[in-house]
């Protein structure tokens, strides 16, 4: 469809328009917070706001459609809003809803597929409202939140909102959910959209013949689905998650050069971009399901889609007065051969974590009405994984263990290891290890130029059993340094040790949050096994049962629960060792299938694990 910069298309969903103008949702509803309902720039509440910011807001293409957008959302349960990137959807629509009083006393959630988008957008919109983040405008992403009782607009990752469903299945705190970047079709977005439909059926049910209000007695829920004109290519999860510098103005006489992953394709606005060089390539995460249900995620370089190419070009001259150039490092012929859009994530990635969450909600993947059905093999693989972790019984029902695992905002294998750690008396150690493994970047800096120096530095932390206990040694050393050194001192130490300072800082934050979860569950996170590594390895093994492999006579390792032959990744401290059995964090598929993050496990430990005992075919 043709949508120009200053045009926004508002689509209505007739199907969900049963209850327009419900009491409490319309324009005449008494506004509980009058300062919120004042139009931008017109009242005393906005006098303190930066005038140039208010001017910028009015110059955005979306501004002319402001009233129409608010009206359409008021009159429909579901609104689909399509507009080019940069037109102002993400930053303005939530403010329009806030200022019109349409949200009533509930909160407005705006979902983003990525953390960095949620946090930077919250900062921008808070500035536009003349407040600081965490007040009127906040954010909530995994392991980080800035919100308060005053918060009315919250930028959240789609994953966080799915997680909120676990505690509040009707999302009762919210009166509007804006599902942004819907074209990216992340797994969590798909899950959310499926659930929002059910929630609306309950919350927006019309008053019945006897005049009874809907069962839930909650205000109706508005859903706004927002998207760019074209479908955008999937993003890489790695981000350099240095990003704040790219948003600052370029010093005079200097030039800003940004090397970006697919992340820069959508959702974030980087000011001052005039030229874009598009390689035509991206890295895509894809889950390779295997017959035995033990597949793995791969991250491979491949051609982008046409819609990505358009998005990339659109990054140049995005600002109001700007114009720019895009240099494509590929021929027109190659462009024409590119697929138009990418496959939705639900058809590409591991479903394990989402399936566990759905099970906690009493739902089944097989029964949910999705926009795109997930691959049957992936569903089977997720079921099998959860069964082998003990989260599901053999009737596919959630077990108490599974429910316990879901409380931790961790991938199911790591959650399982943590639950086991409580049992084995090594909570402190396993918390440190899983925190590092949950960080968004790798702990060890892989520096090809200084490989020997890096290996030397790493040797200081080396633990005989392998990488997991080595990670623990690093955390302990970092804690000692952190106790006596300034931030700069810590960074310096990390640089000397070839460690990723950002990973460690993030891990400490994650660990603090996980400790809070433990405290809420009456789990003493201080319980430590001291220098005894046995319980730590046993706990990790419970979580990594699917990531176990045995040495074969020819020196390779064969998966215990799958058909693949794997090699130990060269970056591992066990790379040149032959041990009876290994557990690993992940498989990476390059020239070989490599196991990364590896520890040696004595066979006697494996013999104690119930799922291995049950598998006589071992
Ligand atoms: O969502 P959409 O792509 O339609 O636009 P947006 O993200 O709301 O951005 C609208 C405008 O706000 C951009 O063109 C930028 O000028 C500005 N913006 C910004 O300065 N800083 C941000 N973090 C986000 C947006
Ligand atoms: Mg946007």
From TrEMBL:
Gene3D superfamilies cross-referenced by the UniProt entry: 1.20.120.1080, P-loop containing nucleotide triphosphate hydrolases
This enzyme's EC code(s): 3.6.4.13
InterPro entries in alphabetical order: AAA_22 (IPR049945), DEAD-box_helicase_OB_fold (IPR011709), DNA/RNA_helicase_DEAH_CS (IPR002464), HA2_WH (IPR048333), Helicase-assoc_dom (IPR007502), Helicase_ATP-bd (IPR014001), Helicase_C-like (IPR001650), P-loop_NTPase (IPR027417)
Top-level enzyme category: hydrolase
Region (Disordered) location: 1-58
Similarity comment: family membership: Belongs to the DEAD box helicase family. DEAH subfamily.
Protein name (database record): RNA helicase
Organism: Pycnoporus cinnabarinus (Cinnabar-red polypore)
């Amino acid at each position: 469809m043709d949508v120009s910069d200053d045009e926004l298309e508002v689509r209505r969903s007739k199907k969900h328009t049963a209850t327009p103008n419900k009491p409490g949702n319309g324009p005449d509803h008494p506004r509980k917070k009058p300062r919120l309902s004042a139009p931008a720039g017109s009242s005393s509440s906005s006098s303190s706001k930066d005038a140039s910011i208010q001017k910028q807001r009015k110059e955005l293409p979306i501004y002319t459609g402001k009233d129409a957008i608010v009206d359409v959302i008021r009159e429909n349960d579901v609104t689909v809003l399509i507009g080019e990137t940069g037109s102002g959807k993400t930053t303005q629509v939530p403010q329009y809803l806030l200022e019109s009083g349409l949200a009533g006393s509930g909160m407005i959630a705006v979902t983003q597929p990525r953390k960095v988008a949620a946090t930077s957008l919250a900062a921008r919109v808070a500035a536009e409202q003349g407040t600081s983040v965490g007040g009127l405008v906040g954010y909530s992403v995994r392991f980080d939140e800035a919100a308060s009782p005053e918060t009315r607009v919250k930028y959240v990752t789609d994953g966080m909102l799915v997680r909120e469903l676990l505690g509040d299945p009707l999302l009762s705190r919210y009166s509007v959910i804006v599902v942004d970047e819907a074209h990216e079709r992340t797994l969590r977005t798909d899950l959310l959209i499926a659930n929002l439909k059910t929630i609306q059926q309950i919350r927006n049910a019309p008053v019945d013949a006897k005049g009874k209000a809907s069962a839930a007695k909650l205000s109706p829920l508005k859903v706004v689905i927002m998207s760019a004109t074209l479908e955008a290519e999937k993003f890489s999860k790695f981000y350099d998650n240095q990003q704040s510098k790219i948003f600052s103005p370029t010093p005079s006489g200097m030039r800003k050069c940004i090397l970006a992953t697919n992340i820069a394709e959508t959702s974030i606005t980087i000011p001052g971009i005039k030229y874009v060089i598009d390689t035509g390539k991206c890295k895509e995460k894809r889950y390779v399901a295997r017959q035995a249900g033990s597949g793995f995620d791969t991250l491979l370089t491949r051609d982008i889609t046409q819609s990505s190419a358009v998005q990339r070009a659109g990054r140049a001259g995005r600002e109001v007065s700007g114009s720019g150039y895009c240099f494509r490092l590929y021929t027109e012929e190659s462009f024409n051969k590119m697929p138009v859009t990418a496959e939705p994530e639900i058809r590409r990635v591991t479903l394990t974590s989402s399936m566990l969450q759905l099970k906690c909600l009493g739902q089944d993947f097989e029964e949910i009405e999705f926009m795109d059905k997930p691959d049957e093999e992936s569903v089977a693989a997720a079921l099998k994984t959860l069964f082998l972790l003990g989260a599901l019984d053999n009737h596919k029902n959630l077990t108490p263990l599974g429910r316990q695992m879901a409380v931790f905002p961790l991938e199911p294998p790591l959650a399982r290891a943590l639950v086991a750690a409580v049992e084995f008396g090594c909570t402190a150690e396993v918390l440190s290890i899983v925190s590092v493994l949950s960080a968004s970047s790798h702990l060890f800096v892989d520096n090809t130029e200084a490989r020997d120096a890096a290996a030397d530095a790493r040797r200081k932390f080396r633990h005989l059993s392998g990488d997991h206990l080595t990670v623990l040694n690093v955390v302990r050393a970092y804690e000692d340094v952190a106790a006596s050194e300034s931030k700069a001192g810590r960074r310096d130490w990390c640089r000397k040790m070839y460690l990723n300072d950002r990973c460690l800082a993030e891990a400490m934050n994650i660990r603090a949050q996980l400790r809070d979860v433990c405290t809420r569950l009456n789990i003493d996170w201080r319980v430590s096994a001291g220098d005894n590594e046995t319980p730590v390895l046993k706990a990790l093994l419970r979580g990594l049962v699917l990531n176990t492999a045995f040495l074969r006579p020819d020196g390779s390792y064969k998966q215990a629960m799958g058909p693949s032959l794997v090699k130990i990744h060269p970056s591992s401290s066990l790379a040149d060792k032959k041990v009876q059995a290994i557990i690993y964090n992940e498989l990476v598929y390059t020239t070989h299938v490599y196991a990364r993050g590896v520890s040696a496990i004595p066979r006697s430990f494996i013999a104690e694990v119930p799922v291995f005992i049950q598998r006589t075919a071992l």
